[in-house]
Design brief:
Blueprint (H helix, E strand, L loop, with lengths): L6 H6 L11 H21 L5 E2 L5 E6 L12 E10 L4 E5 L7 E4 L5 E2 L1 H7 L6 E7 L20 E11 L1 H18 L6 E2 L5 E6 L13 E10 L7 E2 L6 E4 L7 H6 L8 E6 L10 E2 L5 H6 L13 E10 L1
Parallel strand pairs: 6-15
Antiparallel strand pairs: 1-2, 2-7, 3-4, 3-5, 3-8, 7-8, 9-10, 10-14, 11-12, 11-13, 11-16, 14-16
Length: about 325
């Protein structure tokens, strides 16, 4: 099947676009190569999945007539296993005792992109096998020995849930409460905005509290909930200055840095709608930092996931 894609559409296909040649002829050569290799793989293995106009193939392994159709803009929860057509495992995340991994079903919402594209064919509870050319996967990106350049993929995926923004907030609130309970963590109070706050120190009795327009200097550590590994952090020797109330701040910063005093110290757990919701998701998670360092994604923190933030106020001015 010839791909009916003009040059503007071709460029929108590539989430890692700066890895790729910029000429239409080069892009067409990539597509022709991957299409040929994928067809040869399917023929060798006597597989007859459905071919899509975008270039990936799919077979529906299990149907769920009572499931809800996934539509544009939904936040989707999925389990998956990603392999190359040579059988090399990139990641298996099929254990449904763990929380599903989330992304938004919009253009650019997920890497590899074909998993996202196929979402629109699915109802919740349905399982697919996807056969994906590299130009809809990781393209010529490589990561150690895990992902080799120009890898065509075979992906098993189960689309288990979809959420509206309101439903996601309720879901994350439940995840946070369950984490605190199972970890036997106490002292957290939930704010009206949905942030769970633990006060370690109320700070100096003297001096004015922070307010909009004030600069608050903090030392902080940001991790995923349940992890000790810092995603972002500052130290006493290299603190971070934040102007309270600035519209460019993450929402949770304006909410938690207002009305506090010097030397105060807090631990907070933040739902994603007040933190880092708007960003493409990346499977497997392990390559996100590398993609960020190379400029292929603009946000190092994963979307649609609560975060833990510990901070101490060093100065208010």
């Amino acid at each position: 099947m010839k791909r009916l894609l003009g040059l503007p559409v071709l460029f929108t296909l590539f989430a890692l676009g700066s890895c790729f040649p910029t000429l239409e002829d080069d892009l067409n050569q990539v597509i022709e190569r991957d299409d040929r290799l994928l067809k040869e793989y399917l023929q060798r293995n006597n597989l007859t999945p459905i071919e899509t106009q975008l270039g990936y193939y799919y077979s529906k392994d299990s149907e769920n007539p009572t499931g809800t159709q996934i539509t544009n803009g939904d936040i989707v929860g999925a389990y998956y296993e990603i392999r190359t057509i040579d059988g090399q495992l990139i990641e298996s995340y099929l254990d449904e005792s763990k929380p599903a991994r989330l992304y938004r079903h919009l253009e650019g919402g997920l890497i590899p992109r074909a998993i996202n594209f196929a979402s629109g064919l699915a109802k919740t509870g349905e399982s697919f096998t996807l056969y994906i050319p590299s130009y809809l996967a990781y393209q010529d990106y490589s990561y150690q020995q895990l992902i080799l350049p120009n890898s065509n993929l075979v992906v098993k995926v189960k689309y288990v849930a979809k959420f509206s923004e309101t439903e996601l907030r309720s879901y994350e609130d439940g995840l946070i409460r369950a984490y605190l309970e199972t970890s036997e963590l106490t002292g957290y109070e939930r704010s009206e905005d949905g942030i769970f706050i633990k006060t370690l120190s109320e700070g100096a009795a003297e001096g004015a509290a922070s307010d909009d327009g004030k600069v608050v200097r903090i030392q902080f550590k940001l991790t995923y909930v349940g992890s000790e590994t810092a995603i972002l952090e500052s130290t006493a020797a290299s603190p971070t200055d934040i102007t309270v109330g600035t519209s460019s701040n993450l929402k949770f910063l304006n909410l938690t840095l207002k009305g506090i005093k010097k030397d105060s110290e807090y631990e907070i757990i933040v739902p994603s709608h007040l933190g880092f919701a708007q960003s493409p998701q990346v499977f497997p998670f392990v390559i996100r930092r590398d993609l960020f360092d190379k400029g292929f994604v603009t946000q190092v923190v994963r979307p649609y996931e609560p975060i833990y933030f510990k901070f101490k106020v060093m100065e208010i001015r």
